[in-house]
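[Q] Does anyone have a clean structure-token version of this?
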Amino acid sequence: MFHLTVRDHVMIAHSFSSPTFGPAQALHGATYVVDVTFYREALDADDLVVDIGAASSALAAILAEFNLCNLDDNPALAGHNTTTEYMAGIIFSRMKQAIADGRLGENAAGLSRMGVRLSESHIAWAGYEAEL
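[A] Here you go.
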């Protein structure tokens, strides 16, 4: 399986609504390094997994909605704890839609799997991965 990863980052603020989170129930900030990995069994006609520029642009556009914002104020996220895991799933869904919309080029239709990883630090990260 061939794979290619693009990386960006996003700075957010948020709070959590369960005692499980202890002091993180209060408003706090996080900076996530965001990696999106694309998989395909055979390279396309140009010997690519996916166009790096198109994938990077799509990721930047997705993250722009969240960057330097309080996620608690985002109506699309209402009713959820915007944990690292949850946000990885949100970014996955939006990137999957970008692929379906053709924003990564027509050859992206040959992608078979994708993974999204958000790193909170050098010792903790979470992600979501699934078939496309």
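[Q] Thanks! Anything notable?
[A] The mean pLDDT is 97.
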